[in-house]
Amino acid sequence: MSRVRADRLTNRAGTGAPTFPNGVNVVGLVSATTLSGNLTGNASGLTGTPNIVVGSVTGTTGTFSGSVSVGGTITYEDVTNVDSVGIITARSGVDLNGTLREKVNVTAGKLSDNLNIDLANGMIHLFTTAESTTSTPNIRVDGSTSLNNVMSIGESVVVTLVTTANAAGYSAQVTIDGGAVTEHWIGGSAPSGGGSSGFDVHTFTIIKRANADFTVLANHSKTS
């Protein structure tokens, strides 16, 4: 086997780099100050500083063993399953395989004792202990995240509160992120009493019109 030992390789004129029309096979480490052109092959273990930009590869799947942090917007198509806690905004084409399922947060207590409605736990909240008094629920995402911060102007959410009925238990008002809002009640007036048995259902359609400015369409239904 032949061996070439040299400190520097140039073209014949000594004015540039040599060419390798048939390619180069290297066993070991290759170091370069600059790479020009396309690279093909196995990208396993690819690292770099400051950033690595990876384009689309047809017919392959990207796998990440650790956490992935994205500072901007992720745009994707052909999504079959989405497992999310909180609010999902979808432009179109979400395939639910014929079944629409929504998480319900079940609380073994009364709404009047659990006034913070955290949407991170679901958009529907069921309280299994019979209500005993009026209450003003506070709708937010969680203890450190406001609904105002996760909603864009022109978006809406629907929040449903299901309480175990009692004539003295109902909600005639609601707050969002701890602030008072004006409720527009279906039928023209706020509720003045709960049902005698079964469940009461309070539904709030919340539309963000401007920063921290919401239109709230409210409805109260009794099962008895």
Explain what this protein looks like in three dimensions.
Helices cover about 0% and strands about 25% of the residues. The protein has about 220 residues and is mainly β. A 6-stranded mixed sheet has the order 1-3-5-9-10-8, with no helix packed on it. Strands 2-4-6-7 form a 4-stranded mixed sheet, with no helix packed on it. A hairpin with a 2-residue loop joins β6 (about 175) and β7 (about 180).
List the helices and strands and how they pair.
Elements: E1 104-107, E2 116-118, E3 124-130, E4 138-140, H1 147-150, E5 156-164, E6 175-176, E7 179-180, E8 183-185, E9 199-210, E10 213-222
Parallel strand pairs: 1-3, 2-4, 3-5, 4-6, 8-10
Antiparallel strand pairs: 5-9, 6-7, 9-10
What is this structure, in a nutshell?
The protein has 224 residues and is an all-beta fold. It has one helix at residues 147-150; strands at residues 104-107, 116-118, 124-130, 138-140, 156-164, 175-176, 179-180, 183-185, 199-210, 213-222.
Helical content stands at: under 10%
Radius of gyration computed on alpha carbons:
30 Å
Give the strand tally.
Answer: 10
Please write the string of helix (H) and strand (E) elements: EEEEHEEEEEE
- Ends distance: 94 Å
| Tally of contiguous helical segments | 1
Largest sheet: 6 strands, mixed
Structural class: mainly beta
Detail the poorly predicted runs: none
Quaternary structure state of the chains depicted: single chain
- Please tell me what the overall shape is: rod-shaped
Strand residues, percent: 15-25%
Summed over residues and divided by their number, the pLDDT gives a mean of: 85
Strand order of the largest sheet: 1-3-5-9-10-8
